[in-house]
Amino acid sequence: MFGSLVSQLPIRLPSISYQAIGPELILFGAALVVLALSATVGRREHPQLYRGIGLFAAVAEGAWSANLLRLIDQHGPSLAIAGAISNDGFSAVVGIIVAAALVLTMLIGPGFVESVAGQGPEFVTLLLLSATGAIVMAQANDLIVVFLGLEILSIALYVMVGFRLRDGLSREAAFKYFILGGFSSAVFLYGVALVYGATGSTNLVKIAAFLSSHVLINNGVLLFGIALILVGFGFKVSAVPFHVWSPDVYQGAPTSVTGYMAAMAKIAAFAALLRVMMVAFHLQLEFWRPIVIALAVLSLVFGAVFALRQREIKRMLAYSSINHAGFILLGVLAATSGGVRDSLFYLGAYSVMVIGTFGLISLIQVDAGKVEGSLSLDDVRGLGRRRPAVAVLLAILILAQAGAPFTSGFIAKFSVITAVISVNEYWIAVVAMVTAAVAAAFYLRLVLALFSKDEAEVGVGDALYPVAVRGGSDQGLRLSTASLVPIWIGIWASVAITVFFGLFPTLLLDLVSRGKIFY
Amino acid sequence: MSIPGSWYLVVAALLFGLGAFGVLTRRNVIVMFMSVELMLNAVNLTFVTYARMLNDVGGQVAVFFVLVVAAAEVVVGLGIIVAIFRHRATVTVDDISSLKG
Predict the structure, then answer these.
(1) Cross-chain Cβ contact A148/B65 below 8 Å
(2) Boundaries of each NADH:quinone oxidoreductase/Mrp antiporter transmembrane domain copy (chain A) (predicted)?
């Protein structure tokens, strides 16, 4: 009886292209290997081994993505796994950017985080898993797969933000991030459900096909769904007015996690946002472009203005990252292949420099005995004389974030503004340039503080080389030479990449212009 | 008598609104957490209703993904809440407001 039932209802399993999902498999597999190893060789004995595996996996993932990009250039893009995954130039380029961010964090992050939170395999594992989620989001060709990638990324990030469990600020940041992250996921998902109701599918290509062949008489459900999806993404990229969580979370999270989060959450959310808007809702452009314009302009203006009043460096950089999100949104609202290319360029340049910036700030914090996440402008005053190398490298990265010429930050800002001008939205370009000038004010204030002469307070010099720190869990924090070497390699690499692509931008432009979205 | 699908959609929208309202106004972290879960379940109801109306199994499959993700979120969320509770012996957000500005 069952035999006849089965033969009547054959279940056709989709063919799985392991080549297309290779990047995810490498990172996820490495995470499992690290966990399994820690159970056999001991949790705390071999921190270098775990970091080595993580680093190897990140490099392998980048190489795999580069190879995928080469194959796509030869044979053309394709859809894999029953249309749920898109194997195109866009996902391969994002895979390479993710690999760059992951390699830098693998070098810089574990040394700091494990010195405050204790050694173990967890941090490396969470880094690998969150990067897996980011690549899933970049490849997702189905709104449900976007959601899954978003959650794989976010759940790992919630834990990483709360990694310094003994510290009240870290716990608070983790809770705020978790509640608002869960809230925004639910809003996003409700948008997905409404779009599904209006179009009958969650697959981006099928949605686009439906919308191009049907005229919806009452499309309120569809438009409300698109708006909710935009709100969900707005939370994830911390665009104004959905930015309220980000300064608190940036300040409370362990500093190298902040850098990673700023880079990876933006890469992943913008990759998914670009694909969803370009593939599924390109016909609804007149509806969603004003929303994205509002998000972009508000983020540009409020990010720059609020950063001006901050004396707390991590909070200031949080508002600066909101300003950066506004710039990246410029490429989204252009909604052209040029806009996609410029957003990708900005994401690549920004993620490299922000990870390096927060790595240097971690270094300053460790020196100052201030691991609780508070570091004000006064704390770094006169750093140029005490630690010239740190101060000069930090100044280069800060100026790159401000968009100074001869850094990749300049080309990035220039190209997204060009993208907006190409769709005749001149006033937005003007707003963007004005906010870039406002933002330069607070970046320069930080650089001036680094190289100012006066060491206003008496205690600062002592605080920078603490013998006895103020007690609690951070007492006697020191970084071993073994972990300082990779940290410096990572920081130098981030500065070198930023300056190199500022001097030779065509190399990076060639790469990101191969990142075409397939549909 | 059959109940039209739009009724379920209205109920789901109300549930979603209740959940969103709860997250934004309640001060107890457990209740905020429950409100997020309420929002996710409102989404599930919407998915199932549309799946029934469209006669398509895709929406029902989506519900399983949402359920699994919600379960994973509960694990992490309760972990964070327990960590806060251990140190403060209270779960009111007014007590965890050191970060501002």
Answers:
(1) yes
(2) 140-436
